[in-house]
Design brief:
By secondary structure, this protein is of the alpha/beta class. The protein folds into two domains: about 120 residues, 3-Layer(aba) Sandwich (Rossmann fold), CATH 3.40.50.2300; about 160 residues, Response regulator (Rossmann fold). About 45% of the residues lie in helices and about 20% in strands. The N and C termini lie far apart (about 70 Å). It binds alpha-L-arabinofuranose (AHR).
Length: about 325
Amino acid sequence: MKKMTCLVCLLLAVMLLAACGQRDAAVQEERLIRVGFSQVGSESDWRMANTASMTAALCEENGFELIFDNAKQRQENQLLAIRNFIQQDVDYIVLAPIAESGWDDVLQEARDAKIPVIIVDRQISVEDKSLYTSWVGSDFLAEGQTAVRWLEKKLAEEGRAEEPLRILHIQGTDGATAQIMRSRALDEAVEAHPEWEIVAKLPGEYTEAKSYELVRDFLSRGEEIDVVYSENDNMSFGAIRALEEAGIAYGGDGGVLILSFDAVREALQDCLEGKINLCVECNPLHGPRVAALIQQLEAGEQPAKETYVDETSFSSDTLTEEIVRARDY
Ligand code: AHR
């Protein structure tokens, strides 16, 4: 009888523990912070690294439930994704915007639903800046100015400062902060240097394929160039392929100078091998930064409205194999 009572007690204890376990799991699930993230697309190595950083940081182990949407480089898909997030009543919306304009209405809808919005990477231009809580990303104008200053120095060192310079400008997605600001830096430099000329502006949309096609067609017309100013690494890869096919020397000393943005590992390797002359860094590792902003808001703190990340640049004179090997993306 005594044995029987013990067995019943044991059974009850096991059932109680199981019930507690279930309740704990439910409570834990309830505590996950639900985040809807609208990503631009997967147009570049930079973007893939950015997506990996965001998904790694906003994971369940870190207390988040992430709803990820890839907009495939279309703003209408981003608007749809944000409206879906609102319907799903997420706790936060994170937006990596394709372009600066066109967000006022949808962000007003998020505000009406009382969902805070965090902007990451490129910026947005809205009438009422309180429609978003915080932004974190790069100083794209400073990146462009870094490239331009490097070019000035390089030409001066080679005694070519007064010579005519023909620049092929490959641009990123029209209206994106990265495009607007990197283009502005070059346009301002061309204004300041009467001997510099932009021979063409090609809309490469941040992809290798598009850049390759455009540069190939451009070169087939027999145009001559001294510099390629390419607003991301993948477009540089496309341009390099087209230059190679056209039998035009590039990189190193004496070839068409290649100035590139992002500094992903493959571009750094190209720089080390003398194929790319300058890699201006654009840091994609925003996941932990966004997670920290959300945690600040959860703690009732008010994060900074704007956070610019630190960035650097690499040329073949400064780059080492160790730097390339240590690159995370
Ligand atoms: O907004 C950052 C830019 O977007 C990166 O330079 C580019 O590679 C990406 O697609």
